[in-house]
Amino acid sequence: MGYDKIPRQKLPLSKKxxxxxxxxxxxxxxxxxxxxxxxxxxxxxxxxxxEYYNGVIDEAxxxxxxxxxxxxxxxxxxQMRNYPIIKPIVDLxxxxxxxxxxxxxxxxxxxxxxxxxxxxxxxxxxxSFQKQFANEMIKGGNFQGEQEEVQLPKQIAEQFEASYVDNxxxxxxxxxxxxxxxxxxxxKFQKAWFHFLVAGEVYTHRGVRNNEPxxxxxxxxxxxYDLDPDLDFVEDGDWALVRxxxxxxxxxxxxxxxxxxxxxxxxxxxxxxxxxxxxxxxxSMSKDPNAYRNRLIEVAQVYWKSRxxxxxxxxxxxxxxxxxxxxxxxxxxxxLEMKELGxxxxxxxxxxxxxxxxxxxxxxxxxxxxxNQRNSLDNNSTCKLPINGIRYSNINSxxxxxxxxxxxxxxxxxxxxxxxxxxxxxxxxxxxxxxINMIPKKWDMDKFMYYVEGTGIAWVDYNKEGxxxxxxxxxxxxxxxxxxxxxxxxxxxxMQEWEKLSGVNRQRQGQVGSYEGKATSQQAIVQSSxxxxxxxxxxxxxxxxxLQAMVDYSKEAWLxxxxxMYVMPDGxxxxxxxxxxxxxxxxxxxxxxxxxxxxxxxxxxxxxxQSMIQNGVPASTISEMFxxxxxxxxxxxxxxxEKVQAELAAKQQEAEQQMNQAKLDQEAKKxxxxxxxxxxxxxxxxxxxxxxxxxxxxxxxxxxxxxxxELDIKDREVDIKAQDHRDKAETNRSTATIKREETKSKxxxxxxxxxxxxxx
Length: 760
Prior knowledge:
alpha+beta; 52% helix
């Protein structure tokens, strides 16, 4: 059965009856059964890859070794075992993935995103003009208050572009953070990564369950889909199905509300079914009342893209006179009064995702359009399947995986290990040859060999009747196997080739030789990472797609809004408060950073921790850096630390200035005190001089005049010194005032930025 058997999808809803629905489900299941999409032996091949990873031996792989020429080797001193060389490589990449950061950014892609941003910028510039006007009024004495620092419009625009975040994007980021926590996305991504390494395929199921977004990782063995060579992601394909075998009891519990009483009875006891094909059980099984209920039955869930008709109704609003457009569903009939008002209706076909379930090959339930459609607000025909996934290689070739690449090396490694064990068992070193007739009388071969191996002495009997032997004719045979060393060399060569192919060399595994320098080892690790980076890159693309789906489905799940508290990865709590209307109307975009580059930047910053401590960065900030999984988080924490340090330095500087001012004031008072004392001394000296002048001659008067001049000079020196101290004190007061104003201005700017970035 091929694509030509799929029922026509471009039909009105009225013609999509029960027969059409069941025919669609059956057609896609048969399309999968035909092997056209994935090959008839796909499940068996995938199952075998998981067994190779787990080290399960399949003797069919070693048939030519264990049964050469069709003959089975029995009682050989060697056994075929698995010596894992695939599993350590896969486990190392699993560990590396768990340590890689998962950093994403949520943006808003609505048509009004640009205008909203420009309006916010204009509001800031207008606010600065208002402050400038207020400063002028205060300066002119018209208003009372303190003047505020005002930035130029250019400065405001530059700072705005660097810090602006749409408030809707902030809410979207919080929504994803909550979903990551509630759905344990990190752990599920790790599980998906394991499937990708082993099977080269990974599939997920996203949707809404109980008014909450859900995320499940599917078993690749159970999934099939439209293998278009140009299809990168399953969600963009035309169809996908999940088919697995489940206990009848579990099926009844899961689909109880959709099954009739007769269908439940048939699942519990298949003998009640109309078709003879379901009488698969013996009479002895039927005696057990739980035998049928515990049997495994097939459950197939099918998703496909159909077509539906929607109408675009245009009419003039009688109240405003403006032309309006509404979307109406298929089956809408325009009322006569609308026609009279000039209304027009235009129909258009768009895509729509349908789903349906088949149970036990004959029961069809839940066949309808998927309740939660992922449509674009700008394009009604854009829709995504709830099933997503990727294959490592899907272009013009069969799929491959890391484990599949390693299978030939694993088989050869086991074979050479088998032959090495066999060679070691056959190796007997130097063996002496003795004629059997030399064994002493009444001894058997076991006793003879016991003494040979236990004592190194071969006891012989040269006096046997009728036996004439010359001991000099005995010989020594070399039974050591020279190929043991060759096998060891071959095993090392196989391991090196496998490591080279996988991209995980011994340096990357931490096996660094003593002869290797740090630079050589680092270069080997870098070259190794280049090979595996494509695996990480492809998987990161799928992670981005799935996170996008989760935020999209959250809009359908939280129609009534969402208020809850959740825990962040760093242990802190956050609160989610979403407005339903704003959330639904937001067109979110998820952008994932390159995890490899992000990890390199993280390691580079963390290596600078010692120098950062020496430069005064607090130890608490350094510890927070090591707990961070995002380079952006580290930058944010460093900026916060720098801000705290700047504020602390400003306070310390202000305190020092106050202390210096107090010291200068004290010194000025001291100088004034000295001046006062000098004035008193001067008056005393003048009085004494005048007394002496009355009693002395002209020379005494001259001495008095000289003394007066000296006192004047000393007074002027004291005045100059005092004025100098006063000038220094005034300068320090002015500097401290300027610093305080600068600190206040920076705090006001920071508060303004925080308010605008939070949408307040």
